[in-house]
Amino acid sequence: MIVVTAPTSDIGRRVIRNLLQSGTPLRVIARDPSRLTEETRDSAEIVQGSHGDTAAVNRAFDGADAVFWLAPADPKAASVIAAYVDFTRPAAAALKAQGIKRVVSITALGRGSPLADKAGYVTGSLAMDDLIAATGVACRSLACPSFMDNIARQATAITKMGKFFLPISGDLRLPSVATSDIATVAARWLLDNSWSGQSEVAVLGPEDISFNDMSAIISDVLGKAVTYQQIGFDAYKARFVEIGLSDAMAQGMTDMARAKDQGLDLAVSRNPENTTPTDFRTWCEDAFAATTLGGRGR
Asked: Which residue range forms the structural domain that includes residue 45?
């Protein structure tokens, strides 16, 4: 039995799709089961509730072998530590109490970097990993750079203004990864019951790419001019506060962006084991243009 948390998230729903294809028994924790796909509702056992709740995680982990762990970034949290570490405490206790054998979690690149202690959401994610590891459970922490899919959050600005905005240098080439590839890697680890121990596994796309490079690719794929505009960190934070994030979580987003701008994601070398197949152009053609913006696609 495999338990999947955050089953309606971009990564979680793709993990479920991959696991269902294998025929493995599946259980999901969902606040609102009506948001699950029909296939998931028909094929998986559902525990209604939050995976930050003691009762829910104990019900879900009972009799299970493995857990896919993805903590949601609560926009109203009092701090990034509250959002990641405090949220995970009930699950960490349940992992031990219920005898879970393996955990595959989603985390961020940055461990070992001098920037990691002041990197906002990254700092919280790494502290969450430490909490899970302290239970003694076998775990694989999938350490990811920024998601290509985050660009889709600026679809309105791209379509209406021909621009997208971030505070990171437009010429800085950084790794990125498609959420579909993260889900594939996660499912592979979840279905493999031969591993033990604890380690971090980098999950990198096939190229380092700048936001100026991305804008050129988006322009080509959509057939319209799209440019990248770098904004200040204060303006970046203010936008998150404006849309309802707590000051602490808006600051967490800002601190993460600043650390990435200073090279946080560049410490891990790419190799065949940690490189995923989807490059930005492929993601833009398949996942962005064709579905999000109604562009030409491939």
From this structure: 2-146+178-204
Residue 293: per-residue pLDDT: 53
The answer to the question of residue 102 being in a domain is yes
Task: Give yes or no for residue 295 having a pLDDT over 80.
Answer: no
185, 149, 293, 255 alpha-carbon torsion, rounded to 10°: 180
Q: Which residue has the tokens 């985050």?
A: 150
Mean pLDDT of 228-253: 96
| CA–CA dist 221, 208 (Å, integer) | 19
Question: Is 35 inside a domain boundary?
Answer: yes
CATH number of the domain to which 61 belongs: 3.40.50.720
Structural domain total, the chain: 1
pLDDT at 296 over 70: no
Question: Letter for the amino acid at 36?
Answer: L
- Residue 251 inside a domain? The answer is no
38-58 pLDDT, tens digit each: 999 999 999 999 999 999 999
Q: Is 249 part of any domain?
A: no
Rounded to two decimals, the pTM is 0.93
**CA Rg, the chain, in Å?**
19
- On the question of pLDDT at 294 being above 90, the answer is no
